[in-house]
Design goal:
12 strands, 5-stranded mixed sheet, alpha+beta
Amino acid sequence: MRKIVHVDADAFFASVELRDNPSLRGKAVAVAYHGPRSVVTTATYEARQYGVRSALPLRTALARCPHLIVIEPRMDAYREASRLIHGVFTEFTDLIEPLSLDEAYLDVTRPKRGPGSATRIAQEIRRLVRERTGGLTVSAGVSFNKMLAKLGSGMNKPDGLTVILPQDADALIARLPVGEFYGIGPVTAAKLERLGIRTGADLRARSLTELTAAFGRHGAHMYAIARGIDDRPVDPSDDRKSVGTEDTYDTDLRTLADMHAKLPGLSERTARRLARHGLAGRVVTVKVKFSNFEVISRQQSLPVPVQTAEEISRVARRLLGADLVGTRAVRLLGVTVSHLVDPQGRDVVPPLFPLV
């Protein structure tokens, strides 16, 4: 049986800001870029009492909490804090699956050092993170699979530790609202509720045939998680096998010429990130989000890896044609380079975290 720890920093960006500026403690603070289309990246727990949360439009956050203090993100500070946190993880295991700068799964079934108890390892991780980051806190969940470990880390935030033992899992799952299950979003949760399925017990009462008939392959996933089944291993390979940049615009782009005018800047920023790591890429992708929030993308594989802004922009311009966007208004554009290679043309997997 695996021993999995899920670690999630508490209000990470905001916590870094409070650490570096103690006068903000106890206040409603949000980290967000300023602008009419900005969204909150994270907020303090004082701000969350007013309904301010991640991904909420900034104008809505200010309407809910007029005294909200808004701070521009400082990504260098967050990356440095992330490096320290990740350094703690590596002392206990090499089986680390990062989900973001501040969140990761750890498989500590066979730890590199320390106690054999996953609970005691989680306690030590929390202590060391606080010590080495100048007071930042993380919450941890401990269980025998990833789904339950992640569930546990969110149960006693902030600065919490929750252990879900095998003998306790069934009862916990039975009373859990379906919207809190891994992989069940608001739309699916609403559909389940219309079918009279509100809790894990309700979900477990439905057969595999019923769930797949209603939800397709996703029904099989729900059938498994209602029974606490999650066989996914902790994957230490880095999923960020691409380098890219995207921008959301204050005013919709309505002509192809306006869209093409944005590509050199996006390509330049992507190229700078590639150059910083000595990488090139064989695939260029253009991402488009329309004013109705529909997202489409188009990519092209190349015989020769690209690296410079001019090369990337040239390919992106070919991809971003009138046939792709038509006459629709565009609110976001992105340019990504993937299938990365090193200077010798060898395929590479980027190291953890540096390409954010």
